[in-house]
Amino acid sequence: MESYFEFNYKKFGVVKIDKINFDSINGAQYAPYLKVLYLPAGYTLTVDFKQFVTKKNSLFFINSNQYLQLEKIGAPGGIFIYYNRDFYCIQIHDEEVACDGLLFNNIYGMPMTVLPAGEDIFIADALENIIRELSGQESSREEMIRTYLKQMIIRATRAWKQQQLKELKTAPSGDIEFFRNFSRLVEIHFRDKHSVTDYADLLAIAPKTLSKKFNRLRLTQPNDIIKDRILLEAKRLLAYSSLSIKEIAYHLGYDDPAYFNRLFSNKLGYTPATFRKKFSIQETEG
Question: pTM for the full model?
């Protein structure tokens, strides 16, 4: 069952997941949207080449440039939300819960938030309220839906930080914002800025200072974060586009395709051509 709201280029919809419609969620019709999935235990899905299996009620936040494949349904009660940026995109003063906030863009590539008991109750109530608003005709329903969605994102962001940023638990709030800002800059510039120096310049600090800050917080090194983001995009293009390997190298800012090949091979253990071939075989078998 699907319910949706659409007005002046703004669209927001909810699909209750069942055995009949779950395959359509993987379809191209939802690809351009931001997506939120509420999944009980027993669901299997792949997001950007990583497979996840839910053991407890969990939320997944999927950006429009990520690839989602829902593979197996678990316990009843799964809900799929989709919406466009015209419907919800918070202004700059709310950066952490905006369209490019931690849940949708983080350097860990972790879209999953396992819901603690108290948060699960709140999220379930918010989802019920959203579905109720969609079925009504109140003039204020758009704003009510957006309010419930924002509350879900805020609560999930808090839980995600507790689960993924343990190193930052006792760090000053400025360190968390620095971490998020670096992640956002990588997302914006990874195609044309490939070095730690590039991002240190954007942050107006010395490259050594940037690396030392990540060392102190026991986080993945900035150079690895930058390269991992470049290679994720390379894998997306190899898997889902018809661009040649040379064209992908140019698209990612490498004038020397041989250097791009070596980078891919050294980091992942196989060549771009091998990855494309293996992915094609898996897709055919699937």
Answer: 0.84
